[in-house]
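hey so i finaly got around to running the thing on Probable electron transfer flavoprotein subunit beta from Malassezia vespertilionis. pasting the sequence first so u can double check i didnt mess up the copy paste, my clipboard has been acting weird all day
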Amino acid sequence: MRATLVNQLRVLVPIKRAIDYAVKIRVASDGKGVDTNVQHSMNPFDEIAVEEAVRLRERNKDAIKKITVVSAGPVKSQDVLRTALAMGADDAIHIDIPDKSLPGSLEPLAVSKILKATIDKANEEEEIGLVILGKQAIDDDASQTGQMLAGILNWPQATFASKVELSGKGDKGDKVTVTREIDGGLGVVESQIPMVITTDLRLNEPRYASLPNIMKAKKKPMKKYKISDLGLEKEIQPRLETLKVSEPPKRQGGTKVENVDELIAKLKEAGRI
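ok and heres what it spat out for the 3d tokens, dont ask me to read them lol
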């Protein structure tokens, strides 16, 4: 029997383990990807999403009952889940997808289908009414997963959020007001629970996980599913093939000129004028 929301909201925050933003990216030896044998961490936009879910609960203590984080990937993905738990999430779901099971990375459509199946499975116990995730991952920069997930769920969506406000007690139909970053300014949209929100950079500044919270996170529950448990073995196979990855050309040094005439001559020589 499907659970229902009763005056308290369960929030799902999908997070991704990505190459750390401070790492210098190097092309892999096969020329079809990048070297992944480097430091990884939580995708920064997803870190903002976790922080916003925690802040929403701090502002609406009677409305939000539970914050659940989910990540799909190899066992190492549990590291970012534990980080999210230390930041304030209550429980975690790990969808185990070994590196060797895929010829490439998960594409946005595959991730959205995994999240849809995860929501369906979680709803058997306690219904999810709000999904907050980063607007994009810093590795593929696709910025598609949130929109695709909203489409598959047939839920309203608010993307590139710079402010989120919840009114009500977490019931279905309660209003969520989202201020969005748009070209040339801000836009404000309002919708009802359930809905999908993607977070922008200026929404908040994520907190650091304290040592006591890191220790507490080790005791918080983490469910583990295989992709076969969701029945999506074929659905997650890549539809695109990466043919070649190469570094951008090195920048050439500039040339100094003595006067305007010499500048014009150089521009003509380069075919710019």
